[in-house]
Amino acid sequence: MFGSDILAFGSALWHRPFVGSLITAERENLRGDFPDRLFWYVYATGGGGNPHCADGSLSWLFLSDLWIYESLPFGSRSRCPFILKTEKEGEFKTITHKEFRDEINALGTALVKMGLKDKRIAVISENRYEWGLAYLAIATGTGVVVPLDRALPPNEIESLIERSEVKAIFYSSKYNEAMDTIREKGTSKIKCFISMDLTEKTGDVYSQKELLEKGKKLLENGDKRFIESKIDNEKMGIMLFTSGTTSISKAVMLSHKNIVTNVMDIRASFELDETDTLLSFLPLHHVFECTAGFLYAISIGASIVFSKGAKHIADELKEFQITAMISVPAVFDIMYRKLMKTIEKKGKLETVKKGIKISGALLKVKIDIRKKLFSEIHNNLGGKLRFLVAGGAALDPETEKGFRDLGFNLFNVSA
Length: 415
Description:
It is built from 18 helices and 14 strands.
């Protein structure tokens, strides 16, 4: 792809997050030399933005992209990449794109000030906003991010911390006891323990919230070490660990280019945009969820809702008006079985089967009445759900056909 072609393509992409209209040849170019020669950002913004945003890194993909969603009209869902439930029934807290970008820059600046530049930093917690904030604050200018499996027992968490040689760790209160043990032993290389829940530094444990405020002040005083940092997109930027189900977990080294290429391919394949709201269900430390359910969603300006668990999915689909969900086949298998059992209990199974035959026949002549015909089913799943993606394993053909027969777009992206 020649320079002028990249500029033209980049300008088009800038104004249209979903690039599904790409022809095959263009997508092959995108997979090839595009991620390491991304300089169209400067062209598209007239030279503005962070100096490291045109380098094919996560900084380019997110920190350079977020401003376009900030300028959309008030009331637009795209202005809120995170929708968080509060303790009050029916009330939600939203994080705007500007707030998210500013907090990434502030936290990253504080981390650099702490001497963590180019160091490995771990993150472990349940799915929550602070996890995503820490992840991008580390990856987009501080050092190497090391997401840890939240389901591991304390002894395995300790082992991974020692093996990865991380110098700092972000964690939620769920892991206080495990972190206390590691701190008392003193055998790890961790110098900075950072709590996602403390409001201020307690003993030798830092507060993520307090670091945010310190970072904002540093930025106000002209500290640009984080926002002007240079990123080599070929070097390791993310260190993952395999599940270790059959043997000891192995470290996997990923570069910014690895992740950015995957996200750009997803953008060229999924028909989602800044009006969509995604339900994040799988653990964020899983590379599939992190890439498709978190990084991809942010890159297109969509909103993310963190699920509380499998038993809450049905209510969350309604409460948050979810339009898309990316998960593993097992989750959709369970959803489909529960859905069909509910239909059967209501005595409507035969009616639905007849409706499927009628709508199937009409589809052959390009008449689609599925959403209207099965509106009650769609409404029971929130009324807005339109795009489902299963990845990581093969999808049961019965589940895939079943959802499609009822008017839901379900795709399997397993290799």
